[in-house]
Design brief:
The protein is built from two helices and five strands. The protein is an alpha+beta fold and 88 residues long. The protein has one domain. It has a five-stranded antiparallel β-sheet with strand order 2-1-3-4-5, with helices on one face. Strand 1 (13-16) and strand 2 (22-26) form a beta hairpin.
Length: 88
Amino acid sequence: MTAQSPNVEQRQYIIVTADHQARGGFDNIQGAEAAAIAFGDGTHVINTNSGAYQPAVHVVEGGQLILVGHGGFDRRQGPDGNLVDAAK
């Protein structure tokens, strides 16, 4: 196992199938997209480290990934501020 520099952003993409089961995490979008398409329609790809107000969720529809209208939020506001921002 290699140590990662603290300045390197770690991004993880989570796959959630249509039956709401988390099926795994990926370090790169290409792997996550391929897995989501293999699981089929209704599968979501969630970018756990999306920037504030940037696209964070895609869903497979008709064998293609489509952007869902959910974005990341500014997580620097503390738990209360984050909850309010996430609800927006």
